[in-house]
Amino acid sequence: MNKNREVALIEYDTNLNGISKIYEKINFEYAPLNLYANQNRKDFNLQKEMNRWFKGRGIPSWRKDLERLLKSLNVKFSDELLDKAYGLSLSDQYWLNPIGKELKWKDINFFTNNFEYKAFLDASILSKSRDKISLMTPNNTTDGMIQKAWIIEDKKRILIKGTFYNANQEPLNEKLTSIICDYLGFDYCNYEVDTLENKLVSKCEDFIDENTEYVTAYDILQTEKKNNDVSTYEHYINILEKNGIKNARENVENMLLIDFLVMNIDRHLGNFGIIRNVETLKWEKIAPIFDTGEAMNCDKELFFIDFNDGKGRFFGNDNKLFSEYLKYIKNINRFDISSKDEIINKWSKILKDYKIYTGMQDERIDKLTIGLKHRFDILEKYMNTNQ
Ligand SMILES: Nc1ncnc2c1ncn2[C@@H]1O[C@H](COP(=O)(O)OP(=O)(O)OP(=O)(O)O)[C@@H](O)[C@H]1O
Ligand SMILES: [Mg+2]
């Protein structure tokens, strides 16, 4: 199902945790974009790809501390969770409606219906063992390596994310990106820093609602064959423009500028994309900038911190120098970075305020503060020489 529409009649094998047969396609234009776009290609095995897509909705095997979480949930593999809670998610509207049950989306979706999350939150973020954890949650279908959990606060669906590297910097980096985006007027998913029993976390609101879905750049790039003389970057922008996304180029450039400034090393093809309306199938807009936690040298020990340059992920190229990013921006002088000193001061304050939770040494705090200033200086110099 995609919200209220039937998409396909399938058989789901609960032993194999996968789709074992596709009986019929129904309203297939409402299927996940990649499956719909490629269904008739000769070399495209729909059942295989549908399984790949479905498994991609689950908790990945590389999730931090996965074994402990699965033990708490009383399952062996995260794939066993895929069909629990009907496969519902808070990032799209796809789900499984068992024949004979004839459930209604309005009665079971997690956008408008409450769900239990406390025990899952404890098990996921705090790595606490819990006896009874409800599996009727959207937490069976979260992607990504960082420990995370959806919770409800003031009726809002909020994603809580923990830390990964030793420096415990990720939530602070997310906040820094939010601050920069705010000053520069970019569309972004706002992250706040918080603590859970002394553990540092970030919090952000769901940028998907009951009428929309998040479609990844990966899926978007699969929808059309790229000519050899076009770069993946231009191909991506072409597809967005063709599908009516306004200011596609500017928004993609904004993301590049952010990744350049904070040296984000994790902009893989699942970490950006668009928002599509699930009722009209209209491509509404570029998804707000999100998941910028792996940045600011957070993976480096003090001695190796280097803000001169580094390698990021760029449209499938995992070894792109940040110094190359700016060349993709058509009019670099459209950005107003006159607030850079305020941003740097805020960054310095955040690092100091959360020092007791990150356990960060003053030397690292200094390096990270000077580091951000250095990034802005490089950008400013580039702007001045490219007037
Ligand atoms: N605010 C949000 N609203 C809706 N969906 C979200 C939101 N934040 C994250 N997601 C979904 O959850 C997935 C995982 O979240 P996120 O990318 O932040 O986690 P991560 O563990 O840092 O991932 P990665 O493996 O890329 O490091 C995203 O790819 C996206 O599909
Ligand atoms: Mg991610």
The rounded distance between the terminal residues' Cα atoms is 52 Å
Per DSSP, the total helix count is 13
Lateral arrangement of strands in the main beta sheet: 3-4-6-5
Helix content: 25-40%
Estimate the strand proportion: 15-25%
Order of helices and strands: EEHHHHHEEHEEEHHHEEEEHHHH
Instruction: Characterize the biggest β-sheet.
Output: 4 strands, antiparallel
Low-confidence regions: none
Account of the protein in words:
This protein starts with 7 loop residues before the first strand and ends with a helix. The protein has 3 domains: 1-55, no CATH class; 57-161, no CATH class; 212-385, Phosphatidylinositol 3-kinase Catalytic Subunit, Chain A, Domain 5 (Orthogonal Bundle). With 387 residues, it is an alpha+beta fold. The chain has helices at 33-38, 46-55, 66-73, 105-108, 118-125, 170-184, 217-222, 232-242, 248-262, 322-325, 340-353, 355-358, 362-385; strands spanning 8-13, 18-25, 148-153, 156-161, 191-196, 199-205, 212-216, 273-277, 283-286, 311-314, 317-321. α6 (170-184) packs antiparallel against α11 and α11 (340-353) runs antiparallel to α13. It is built from 13 helices and 11 strands. The protein binds adenosine-5'-triphosphate (ATP) and magnesium ion (MG). Residues 90-91, 142-146, 159, 161, 189, 204, 206-208, 214, 266, 270-271, 290-291, 293 line the site of adenosine-5'-triphosphate.
